[in-house]
Amino acid sequence: MAFPEPKPRGPELPQKRLKTLDCRQGAVRAVRFNVDGNYCLTCGSDKTLKLWNPLRGTLLRTYSGHGYEVLDAAGSFDNSNLCSGGGDKAVVLWDVASGQVVRKFRGHAGKVNTVQFNEEATVILSGSIDSTIRCWDCRSRRPEPVQKLDEARDGVSSVKVSDHEVLAGSVDGRVRRYDLRMGQLFSDYVGSPITCTCFSRDGQCTLVSSLDSTLRLLDKDTGELLGEYTGHKNQKYKLDCCLSERDTHVVSCSEDGKVFFWDLVEGALALALPVGPGVVQSLAYHPTEPCLLTAMGGSVQCWREEAYEAESGTG
Description:
about 325 residues; mainly beta; Methylamine Dehydrogenase, Chain H; 4-stranded antiparallel sheet; about 0% helix
């Protein structure tokens, strides 16, 4: 008698708190994984940017050079550079190893909400409260941006980049996708001010969060509404959302101190993870593993799946 094959294990959600980092940089405005998920960046209201090994809880370097709070940051594909933007209206390119400012790009008329490198890390894209996205050439000495995208009618809250696309969310309630190969702009109207947008890992869908406490999954090419996810609270703040490492779950911060996980296909709430008593300001999901970082107040929490055992010597 042959035994039936065991069912493949379902995706595990990160719900075991492994570490809490006391970041000591005022309020943590954003937390971001680097490209391979081995390190993370924290953006502080005290004008600093910090680089950590989150699983070990070790601080590797502090980057100082912004004139006001840091609101977003990103790492380059080869881990050699960082970019950041903040309340001083500046976009900063950093050398990871030395901690030095390589370039400081000025031109935005208001605070910079969001920054991203393109895939080759030759261009930084920055979105600002001034309603523009600006593209800065990392290799040029020219002070002005190489391109300015000014279609948004209100502040740009979120910018994401694929190999040939720019996805932007704005307070004007629209998601805009710039197809750089085709030279075309696609726009979808959500209605409520958009706080975060992202591509699904397979590149077929876009996830959009907005201030009506709703996340929407859209077909990237047609704009068709594929799913809506509710239960969390997002009415005041710019909060992050994302998809889990295998596109199985939709994940969002919430103003009630939790992180919410929904089954992507079913739309049902799978987990409301209690983080603490405040607003979960930011989150980051590991690119390949069920590992989540959350930011609340001045600290960052690192979460793994229940079955995860920390390697000996790293705790």
